[in-house]
Amino acid sequence: MTSCAQRFQLDELPALSRTAIDRNDLLRDKAERLVELWPTAKVLPLDKHGRAPMARGQDGLRLDLRPTQSYGSAPPAGSVLLGAQDGTCYWGLRAEPDGPVQEGFGWEATIPEGDGIIWQDLRMAGGVLSDVDAGLLTTAVAVLSWHGHSGFCARCGSATEPKRAGWARHCTGCGHEEYPRTDPAVICLVHDGADQVLLARQPTWPADRYSVLAGFVEGGESLEACVAREVEEEVGVRVRDIHYLGSQPWPFPRSLMVGFAAVADPSVPLVPADGEIESAFWVGRDKLREALAAGGSAPGLILPGITSIARRMLESWASS
């Protein structure tokens, strides 16, 4: 039995927090140097739905990074410098799929077998990519999505144009400069200090899909205060012993999930928020372990996918 004083930690980094690429901020301002490095660079194309070309290699799924020759003699307009590794620069840019696409994504999606190239999205494939590929794709999805929603200045309404190798946008009217936005959200694994964890489901989720609780941070609110507020709003219980676990980018379109654990009293009746939480219940550690051992599901319980920090939190608590 685990005491509430024995705080668990994440066993491993969340899937989308892995990266082995140097973002190299100083290089973003060196336009001439970037042109010099362009011929040996690699390009990650990304379609408007956030899908990238992937293939199966000897080590599993990998990004199908492209040479720069077909994209011109210099980084094209709208491209983003994702980072560098071992002297090679990596760029992301929008492109139309040049092969079959994975239709849809989410809870029931599966990664197809085969040796050909197929365009797949981050939600489905992020958890099985290498550290390098996961970092590249997460960054590309986040920053290219930001560009797609930031064509006009928030201050004066004039058109903006990309700067700093895609890491800023400059207003052509008032000169204001904007940078990629990240909206913090908390995600909290609530347990009873012993062998039960609190899970809940949204009305729009597939049947039997459950996860831990989450919500966006409001203006003027600390992360810990947000945890306490969101849990009480969503299921009607108060938490204590709030502590930080880890974080993960979640670029759908621009969230940063900040993970916490907290303790609540399982004898307090659960009151799911109307229209937001369809149902919530306490799950025993053995039941959770059964679902994890079966790949993420058991009768009446389907867990979040391996790309999410929620899955990493549940795995870490189950093994503590």
UniProtKB/TrEMBL annotation:
GO cellular component terms, A-Z: cytosol
Keywords of this entry: Hydrolase, Magnesium, Metal-binding, NAD
Pfam families: NUDIX, NUDIX-like, Zn_ribbon_NUD
Protein name: NAD(+) diphosphatase
Enzyme Commission code: 3.6.1.22
SUPFAM superfamilies per record: Nudix (SSF55811)
Protein family: Belongs to the Nudix hydrolase family. NudC subfamily.
Swiss-Prot/TrEMBL catalytic activity: a 5'-end NAD(+)-phospho-ribonucleoside in mRNA + H2O = a 5'-end phospho-adenosine-phospho-ribonucleoside in mRNA + beta-nicotinamide D-ribonucleotide + 2 H(+)
Residues of the Nudix hydrolase domain: 180-305
PROSITE patterns recorded: NUDIX, NUDIX_BOX
Gene3D superfamilies: 3.90.79.20, Nucleoside Triphosphate Pyrophosphohydrolase (3.90.79.10)
Enzyme class: hydrolase
Cofactor: Zn(2+); Mg(2+)
GO MF: metal ion binding; NADH pyrophosphatase activity; RNA NAD-cap (NMN-forming) hydrolase activity
InterPro entries cross-referenced by the UniProt entry: NAD-cap_RNA_hydrolase_NudC, NADH_PPase-like_N, NudC-like_C, NUDIX_hydrolase-like_dom_sf, NUDIX_hydrolase_CS, NUDIX_hydrolase_dom, Znr_NADH_PPase
Gene Ontology BP annotations: NAD+ catabolic process; NADP+ catabolic process
